[in-house]
Amino acid sequence: MPTFIVLSTLTDDGAETLVKNPERIKEVNQELERDFGVRVVAQYAVLGPYDFVNVVEAEDAATVARAMLHLASRGSVKTMTLEAIPVADLIARLK
Questions:
Q1: How far apart are CA 88 and CA 94, in angstroms?
Q2: Sign of CA dihedral 41, 63, 79, 16
Q3: C-beta neighbour count of 33 within 10 angstroms
Q4: What's residue 63's pLDDT?
Q5: How many domains does the chain have?
Q6: What is the mean predicted confidence (pLDDT) over 75-83?
Q7: Which domain, by its residues, includes 37?
Q8: Which Pfam families match?
Q9: 30-41, pLDDT tens digit by residue?
Q10: Which of 13, 32, 57, 67 is least surrounded by CB atoms within 10 angstroms?
Q11: For 47-62, what is the mean pLDDT?
């Protein structure tokens, strides 16, 4: 299944929600899989311009785009999504 990296930044409302309910992170991950078919494989809170680095799997880029648009529409997070290509696949294509 294709892998994507989602860099996310909380809005003020999103940060307030997490301070009040830290478990919301897990709830959103479950919603992504249940409602959109996007599975969170790994997730890290990070320092710097982004708040989280998320490794997700989905059927295709359109599936991830749909899920991220729905998340953004809530006003709690902004995302940047990158398609990840396994290095072995890249090497094979370069030969």
A1: 10
A2: negative
A3: 15
A4: 98
A5: 1
A6: 97
A7: 3-94
A8: GYD
A9: 999 999 999 999
A10: 13
A11: 97
Strand pairing partners for 53?
7, 44
Phi, psi of 35 (to 5 degrees): -90, -25
Give the mean pLDDT of 4-33.
Answer: 97
Report pLDDT for 27: 97
Q: How far is CA 87 from CA 81, 90, 91, in A?
A: 18, 5, 6
As a whole number of Å, the end-to-end CA separation of the chain is 23
Give the pLDDT of residue 89: 94
CA distance 27 to 70: 15
For residue 26, give the CATH number of its domain.
3.30.70.920
Q: How far is CA 55 from the centre of its chain?
A: 6
- Listing DSSP states for 48-85 in one string gives SS-SEEEEEE-S-HHHHHHHHHHHHHTTSEEEEEEEE-
Distances (CA, A) of 54 to 36, 64, 86: 16, 12, 16
Provide the whole-model pTM: 0.92
